Amino acid sequence: MTGGAALADPRVVAAMIGGSVVAGGWVVTHLLGAARDRAARAERVRDVQGALYAEIRVHVATLKSQNLSDYGAQMEVLIAQGKGFFPVIPTEHNDRLFSAIVNDIHVLPFRVVDPVVRYYSQLATIGAMIADLRKLRLDRMDASRAARMYRHYIEMKIEAIDLGDEAMAFLLAHLTGGNAAVDDLIETQEKARLAETRAGLASWIETERARQRRA
Fold it and tell me: Could you read off the pLDDT tens digit of each residue along the chain, which spans 215 residues?
């Protein structure tokens, strides 16, 4: 049967049409499935970011309310007096959500993952520091050393505030404006760091000029 004759056969035409419909159905099903997967992934990303933002916000707000600089200075003085005083350090669990979803952290954009991981790494370091402080034997070590260790602990918590603020900024940027907003945030930070560097350099140059004039 020639090609023309085959096309004239209703059965062949019907078979071709049926095959085209089936193939088209496969394509449509694939496209719809891919669209559903993308939508599900996007929703998962929003859920993960929203949960992390909430956990970080609560902890950072708590840290800011504690007036850590003044409190730490007061405790340092009391410890350094060498009378056996050392403040109670409670166990902290400020990474429950992160621990629960850490296996899914890869769903977040890379530039958002980095500040989030740095914040939670700081919390892990603080946790290790708490364990070390609880093992201190004040009767076997110099009080000034114990005071310095406690001051370092407080400084780590203060640093956690800055890291938490940065992590929240990136999470919120991506939640509200996507990658474009994250790009804008990075650009703003880079400009701020450059301005700070220039200001520091200008101050150093002026100080050196003043010192040379006095000499």
Answer: 555 555 556 666 566 666 666 666 655 554 445 445 555 555 777 888 899 999 999 999 999 999 999 999 999 999 999 888 889 888 888 998 888 888 877 778 888 999 999 999 999 999 999 999 988 888 788 889 999 999 999 999 999 999 999 999 999 999 998 888 888 888 888 788 778 788 887 787 777 777 777 76
Q: Measured between alpha carbons, how far is 29 from 136 in angstroms, rounded to an integer?
A: 64
In the numeric block, the tokens 């005083």 are attached to 85
Distance of alpha carbon 86 from alpha carbon 102, whole angstroms:
35
Measured CA to CA, the distance from residue 130 to residue 90 in angstroms comes to 8
Assess contact for 123 and 102: CB atoms under 8 A: no
> The whole model's pTM is what?
0.74
Distance CA 164, CA 36 (A): 33
Give the gyration radius of the chain's Cα atoms.
Answer: 30
Separation of alpha carbons 215 and 209, rounded Å: 10
Question: At a CB cut-off of 8 Å and minimum separation 6, what does 12 contact?
Answer: 6
Q: What's the start-to-end Cα distance of the chain, in Å?
A: 108
Q: Are 163 and 121 in contact (CB under 8 A)?
A: no
